[in-house]
Amino acid sequence: EQSYMESVVTFLQDVVPQAYSGTPPTEEKEKIIWVRFENADLNDTSRNMEFHEIHSTGNEPPLLLMIGYSDGMQVWSIPISGEAQELFSVRHGPVRAARILPAPQISAQKCDNFSEKRPLLGVCKSIGSSGTSPPYCCVDLYSLRTGEMVKSIQFKTPIYDLHCNKR
Fold first, then answer.
1. Does residue 86 belong to any structural domain of this protein?
2. Where do the BCAS3 WD40 domain residues begin and end (predicted)?
3. What does the DSSP assignment read for 100-163?
């Protein structure tokens, strides 16, 4: 049986086979700009029962693989079985950074306005949803449950990376 990392390598070889074969591609393939692995509370089956139904292979949560292309990005779920499933894809130009946002710690004083939309994905694209901000100055929040954009946050200066926590 393949190890977890061997499953990921096999998946990447299937996605971008010409990178490993050394032969010239017969057709134009997409260029991968960046790759990130994540463990996020998206994997928390107590918060996300639909996710549990899709990946009911046991207690171990799947690894999340984010792939940034020259024209967008994809998020894949890779369970222990190695059968990858695409969770999200956006194709609106280059993506500089993306993160899956952890669900906030809820207290009596605070409520989660996005609880029905979670898990959320923050994406810093070259052009924000408004189309009027300078390059990489906007973070769009997408619902991985519905696929819709739920919020856009504008900044005055370019964004180089995204960091997030439960607070």
1. yes
2. 30-167
3. EEPPPPP-SS---TTTTT-SEEEEEESS-TTS-SPTT-EEEEEETTT--EEEEEE-SS------
